[in-house]
Design a protein that fits this description.
By secondary structure, this protein is of the alpha+beta class. The protein contains three helices and nine strands, in the order ββααββββββαβ. The protein folds into two domains: about 110 residues, PH-domain like, CATH 2.30.29; about 70 residues, no CATH class. Strand 6 and strand 7 form a beta hairpin.
């Protein structure tokens, strides 16, 4: 957290993560491979030099390979667009000067639009730390507004350690002079 003159600003990483690059690489290679094998079975020629596709019949194996390859290529193109636009990146800003909380994120739009949420400090009831364990563990800090809306401060796909999330929540609670609530859920 970057603290200056009554303002705390924290940068949020978007889609440009190492794991996304690895997923795109694997998905693209697998998708192209499956697509070429399926197309080879349709054209009765070997377009994929790593294997012999002459024994593969187009129905049902070839068409299935073609479908899965095409689907993997489409998903990898979607992920490449997400990475190029850096969807989800932005910042959280807590300003005592303006008495505002700003949550800003990049959206998936060709216009590079920002999702810009602003809340007055006096509309925030408390800060809640959420810990969910189980098959899909998730830790997050939520702003609880007086009308009971919960505003997450970190992307759901980013896992933050319990110690780090507790430290950030304590610092934020002290800075904003708001009560802190713990919510531990085990599934």
């Amino acid at each position: 957290m970057d603290k200056r003159n009554g303002i705390v600003r924290e940068q949020i990483q978007g889609s440009r993560t190492l794991s996304n690059y690895i997923v795109v690489l694997i998905l693209s290679l697998a998708g192209i491979s499956f697509f070429l094998v399926g197309l080879s079975s349709y054209l009765n020629m070997n377009l994929f030099p790593l294997t012999d596709t002459s024994q593969l019949s187009f129905l049902p194996q070839g068409i299935t390979m073609l479908f899965y390859g095409f689907l993997a290529i489409l998903i990898s193109i979607f992920l490449i667009i997400n990475i190029a636009l850096d969807v989800g990146s932005g910042y959280n800003e807590f300003s005592k000067e303006d008495e505002l909380v700003r949550v800003v994120r990049r959206s998936l739009s060709s216009k590079q639009e920002l999702v810009f949420l602003t809340y007055p400090l006096n509309s925030i009831k408390k800060i809640k730390v959420e810990f969910k364990q189980g098959l899909n563990p998730r830790n997050n800090i939520l702003l609880i507004l007086k009308d009971q809306r919960e505003i997450p401060l970190y992307p759901a796909q980013k896992y933050i350690s319990i110690a780090e999330i507790e430290q950030k929540a304590i610092e934020l609670s002290e800075f904003l002079s708001l009560p802190l609530e713990n919510n531990f859920t085990s599934i």
